[in-house]
Specification:
By secondary structure, the protein is an alpha/beta fold. It contains 12 helices and 14 strands. The strands form 2 sheets. The chain has a 9-stranded mixed sheet with strand order 13-12-11-10-6-9-8-7-14. Strands 2-1-3-4-5 form a 5-stranded parallel sheet, with helices on both faces. A hairpin with a 6-residue loop joins strand 12 (about 270-275) and strand 13 (about 280). Helix 1 runs parallel beside helix 2 (about 40-50) and helix 4 packs parallel to helix 5 (about 110-125). The longest helix is centred in the C-terminal third of the chain and has 19 residues, at about 310-325. The N and C termini lie far apart (about 45 Å). The relative contact order is 0.15.
């Protein structure tokens, strides 16, 4: 059995508590020594996650600089799940403190911050993995492998949709404050849409045309994007954050010899091959989530499928989408 890794969890909001539930199933590999949460209510809610699992909750040090000083030499890694605007400074601090980092998506607010984190990663020699469920999903990695191996033929087009009652669900929260969030539904839940589609495409976008609608909210909640890939394949992206209570997606990748169907979180994979009338499930090893995948990368059992270069890729794509939308859908070259 591998040695335990001792970590800090930075942020204990709703998404962090979801990740904690998965991490607490992996106590043979992971010890959560401390959390960093300035909101007493969020920390109280996180304590309940530990108590329900029968585990003594770790202490809370709300000041990250103090935490890194107090726990110097005791931590090996950090998982950061905080508002988007905090990611760059917090990840930089953890990397410079000698920690490996799993950083929640979207990695940073813009391409400049992404390049800065890449420089810090290179300078410190630490591991930085972005917590894009798609890139870290065995399903998406298998899909990319099948495509690269030539099993599916030539990629012709991709059609992808993600939907959620995001506008109503996040009203009044930091997710609809542009200074903290950096964008709306397409930058938040929709970040998975952008990332997973580019993973499946396995190539760069050459140009995009986009239309965004905020429906009277401070950030966009609806978005439609048309794109052209380097190979000439075409892409349509649809993000609807104003619908009935739900959170789901559908991604279809059309090749010359097959069609792939998956979701933006990489939670499933099905294939319909030429001559078949139905999709069939593609089996892959079960996963306990992004933390398990991070540990596999850290131990050298798999290459990093989501380094900060992936965060830079998404930042450039979203910047181009916003630029096109501001010009009424005029095509923007990347």
């Amino acid at each position: 059995m591998q040695n335990k890794i001792t970590i800090a969890v930075i942020g204990t909001g709703g998404m962090a508590r979801y990740h904690l539930q998965q991490m607490l199933k992996q106590l043979d590999t992971t010890e959560i020594a401390v959390v960093c949460e300035p909101d007493p209510a969020a920390y109280t809610a996180a304590r309940e996650v530990f108590l329900r699992a029968g585990i003594e909750p770790p202490p809370n040090q709300p000041d990250l600089a103090r935490l890194l000083a107090d726990y110097a030499g005791r931590l090996q890694a950090a998982m950061i799940i905080t508002p988007h605007a905090l990611h760059h400074a917090q990840a930089t601090a953890c990397l410079e403190a000698g920690l490996d980092v799993l950083l929640e998506k979207p990695m940073v607010m813009n391409a400049s911050e992404a390049r800065s984190l890449i420089e810090t990663r290179d300078r410190t020699g630490r591991l930085l993995v972005v917590a894009f469920n798609g890139s870290l999903s065995p399903h998406i990695r298998q899909a990319v492998h099948m495509s690269r191996a030539g099993e599916l033929g030539e990629l012709r087009s991709i059609s992808a949709t993600v939907w959620q009652d995001w506008g109503a669900l996040t009203a009044g929260t930091w997710r609809q404050q542009p200074a903290l969030s950096g964008g709306g539904f397409l930058f938040d839940t929709g970040a998975h849409l952008l990332n997973t589609v580019v993973d499946l495409a396995d190539q760069e976008f050459l140009e995009v045309a986009a239309w965004l609608n905020d429906r009277g909210r401070p950030v966009e909640t609806l978005g439609v994007v048309i794109g052209r890939l380097a190979s000439g394949a075409l892409v349509t992206l649809h993000a609807c954050g104003e619908t009935i209570p739900s959170c789901a997606s559908e991604v279809l990748a059309f090749y010359s010899r097959a069609i792939l169907r998956t979701g933006v979180w990489g939670e499933r994979l099905e294939v319909q091959r030429a001559g078949r009338v139905r999709f069939r499930r593609v089996p892959v090893p079960a996963s306990l989530g992004v933390w398990e995948q991070f540990l596999a990368v850290r131990s050298g059992r798999m290459p990093n499928p989501c380094p900060p270069e992936i965060g830079l890729r998404m930042a450039r794509l979203y910047d181009a989408i916003v630029a096109s939308a501001r010009q009424g859908g005029r095509a923007v070259r990347l």
